[in-house]
Write a structure and sequence with these properties.
Number of strands of chain B: 9
Number of domains of chain B: 2
Strand content of chain A: 25-35%
Radius of gyration of chain A: 18 Å
Order of helices and strands of chain B: HHEHEHEHEHEHEEHEHEH
Number of helices of chain B: 10
Largest sheet of chain B: 5 strands, parallel
Strand order of the largest sheet of chain B: 7-6-5-8-9
Distance between the termini of chain A: 39 Å
CATH architecture of the largest domain in chain B: 3-Layer(aba) Sandwich
Largest interface: A-B, 15 and 18 residues
CATH superfamily of the largest domain in chain A: Aspartate carbamoyltransferase regulatory subunit, N-terminal domain
CATH class of the largest domain in chain A: Alpha Beta
Shape of chain A: elongated
Structural class of chain B: alpha/beta
Number of strands of chain A: 9
Radius of gyration of chain B: 20 Å
Helix content of chain A: 10-25%
Oligomer: heterodimer
CATH topology of the largest domain in chain B: Rossmann fold
CATH architecture of the largest domain in chain A: 2-Layer Sandwich
CATH superfamily of the largest domain in chain B: Aspartate/ornithine carbamoyltransferase
């Protein structure tokens, strides 16, 4: 059903061509939107954000639709670090033609800031950060430099 | 390919054992044989913060292998004080030497140097992160003193919360299958709980106590550390606990005959001077072992086979 057919309902319109980021835990949509909007390539792209939609699987979920053909691997990686587990679907002629569930990578290069103020990545400018997943099933990552372990969610993304 | 020594966490058990093997071999050589091992080689001792024992120990190790030493003992003596970046210092100094030994208050600095440089880098302490040569010399001392490392009980005394030396040695001992640890520390300086959480909780035993006397008859190694005043938010609490962790010769009456007292030094007042004359005192030979282990490290990382 499109928004035009039922003007009394507030819906996110279907898109003919674009990207849908689905199964975002309720409340995390804004985080993803904030990441996406930092990249130059999305500056002029129409984006719709839905918050607190009903979801059979999750109870409530957020949803983002972007009217752009491709999402760069860099943005996808960035999303996967901040909110792992979301589904990214590519839409063509209103239909899903491919989808992928993004998981956090094992190694995260230069996308997150180390929280340790005494880490060399914070003491000297220009040092690229690097975090390695502690194990497959955990959300913890280890800074390759100072060797401190953090929850992925407590690390701030690097603003480029 | 060049080989760096940055963190104990990078080393497998077999790699650690190989450092111990080389150290034993170095010790068997005569002074003259040792002196002919690294002629013409230059070690840069880059100490961005003062550390007398570690620096002198590395320098002595290199000199006794017939090599030469250049370097600095504090940051104010370098171009860093003029605003040069750490990586620029590395790229400059690597033209002057064959191996770099780095001490820096910033954590991860040695790892960065190793990534940047074509030369082998040895971490001589990066903030409160790693000090692998201390751990290797501790392991070497334990193996020399007891003849083996597995199947022993090790007591750690003092600041178990912040001591980098203690944390690193406990992890290394666990790799050697050491299962029994006695932890003697005031409430506020106890070993962080995550150390005791392993995937095999039945395998390792961590026994915590406030009483040093209780640990002495049970352990094979008594590893003492300094309790630093500045760690206590309340100095009254420091005054209360400081003497409970003071080891005296009289307290060693019930110790096992082969037991050894170790300490990374400097000691302040946690080991009374009368302990020095007992057969249990292992801390000065431990400092000597530091030179031997660092010789083994320099040889291994400069590609000299023994």
């Amino acid at each position: 059903m499109s928004a035009q057919k039922n003007e009394n309902m507030l819906m996110i319109p279907k898109i003919k061509l674009g990207i849908v980021i689905d199964h975002i835990p309720a409340g995390d949509g804004v985080k993803i939107l904030e990441i996406i909007s930092r990249y130059e390539e999305t500056k002029e792209v129409p984006i719709t954000l839905g918050i607190n939609y009903d979801s059979q699987k999750m109870g409530r979920k957020d949803l983002i639709k972007l009217q752009m053909e491709f999402l760069s691997p860099e943005i996808i990686q960035h999303i996967s670090i901040v909110v792992p587990g979301v589904t990214i679907k590519a839409i063509k002629d209103y239909k899903v033609y491919s989808k992928v569930v993004v998981q956090a990578p094992k190694v995260i290069k230069n996308l997150l800031l180390c929280k340790n103020p005494n880490c060399i990545t914070n003491l000297q400018s220009g040092v690229e950060t690097s975090f390695v997943a502690v194990d497959e099933n955990s959300d913890q990552v280890k800074c390759e430099f100072c060797e401190r372990i953090f929850d992925r969610s407590e690390l701030q993304p690097i603003i480029k | 390919m060049k080989k760096d020594l940055i963190s104990m966490d990078d080393l497998t058990l077999d790699e650690i054992k190989d450092y111990l093997r080389v150290a034993h071999q170095v010790e068997k050589l005569s002074d003259d044989q040792r002196y002919r091992l690294l002629p013409g080689k230059i070690m840069a001792a880059m100490f961005f913060e003062p550390s007398t024992r570690t620096r002198l120990s590395f320098e002595a190790a290199m000199h006794r292998l017939g090599g030469n030493v250049i370097g600095f003992a504090e940051q104010s003596a370098t171009s860093v004080s003029k605003g040069e970046s750490f990586t620029d210092t590395i790229h400059t100094v690597e033209n002057y030497c064959d191996i770099m030994v780095i001490r820096h208050p910033g954590e991860g600095t040695a790892r960065l140097a190793a990534q940047e440089s074509v030369l082998p880098v040895i971490n001589a302490g990066d903030g409160s992160n790693q000090h692998p040569t201390q751990t290797l010399l501790d392991l070497y001392t334990i193996e020399k003193d007891l003849g083996h490392i597995s199947d022993i009980t090790v007591a750690f005394v003092g600041d178990l919360k912040y001591s980098r030396t203690v944390h690193s040695l406990i992890r290394a001992l666990m790799k050697f299958d050491v299962r029994n640890f006695i932890l003697v520390a005031p409430e506020s300086l106890r070993l962080p709980k995550y150390f005791m959480m392993t995937d095999q909780p039945d395998k390792y035993r961590f026994y915590e106590t406030n009483h040093l006397e209780e640990a002495i008859p049970k352990c094979d190694i008594l590893y003492m550390t300094r309790i630093q005043r500045e760690r206590f938010p309340d100095l009254l609490e420091y005054e209360k606990v400081k003497d409970s962790y003071l080891l005296t010769a009289a307290m060693l009456a019930d110790a096992k005959p082969h037991m050894r007292v170790l300490h990374p030094l400097p000691r302040v007042n946690e080991i009374a001077y009368d302990v020095d004359k007992t057969r249990f005192a292992g801390y000065f030979p431990q400092a000597r072992n530091g030179v031997i282990m660092r010789q083994a490290i320099l040889l291994k990382h400069l590609g000299v086979e023994l």
